[in-house]
Amino acid sequence: ETGVTQTPRHLVMGMTNKKSLKCEQHLGHNAMYWYKQSAKKPLELMFVYSLEERVENNSVPSRFSPECPNSSHLFLHLHTLQPEDSALYLCASSQDRQARQPQHFGDGTRLSIL
Amino acid sequence: AQSVTQLDSQVPVFEEAPVELRCNYSSSVSVYLFWYVQYPNQGLQLLLKYLSGSTLVKGINGFEAEFNKSQTSFHLRKPSVHISDTAEYFCAVSDVQGAQKLVFGQGTRLTINP
Q1: What is the sign of the dihedral through the CA atoms of B42, B59, B65 and B50?
Q2: What residues in A contact B104, CB-CB < 8 Å?
Q3: Which of A29, A56, A74, A85 is most buried by its number of CB atoms within 10 A?
Q4: CA of B4: which chain A residue's CA is closest?
């Protein structure tokens, strides 16, 4: 059981396609996160939203565009991706941005770029 | 800035044997410490966390970890493992002050052999 739901679970796309990843949290949390998980590398924090406002962008290329229409939903819009963007994309949420709050993760979207 | 080192990328053990997964961190400020587990094809799930107080922290599924400030370590232990513990384990730290920003280690793959 997870309070954070990500769709789709798997996505295969060409480099010229446009697609979106969706994340929904049912926990009443106020902060949401996008991470990239690649093989042999630590999790990379991409974006942070707090109360629907983007508060952090960790030098992510513009071909990744996040959107947070409300505190329960987070999207990652993708366009003109590169093969090195193939990875597992994880969404997480936390009650707020206090450092002591644990993050709750979804099961991820496995993205493959052809 | 913080950093996390998980000293073993893979740890194979036999079922019902004890296991220790090592985690060392580097930080110039006080930190909170977390262990997460990732089962195959799933997202990360919180195992346990150290915020303050007793240095021995107990988590879910029979795991525990001990915070050692002088050695800047937070090793994870379980006295007797099961096949179902096969997963990847991530240690993470967050600066006590300021907004939450988890820094993850590279993960340790625990494989349980019958």
Answers
A1: positive
A2: 42-43
A3: A74
A4: A42
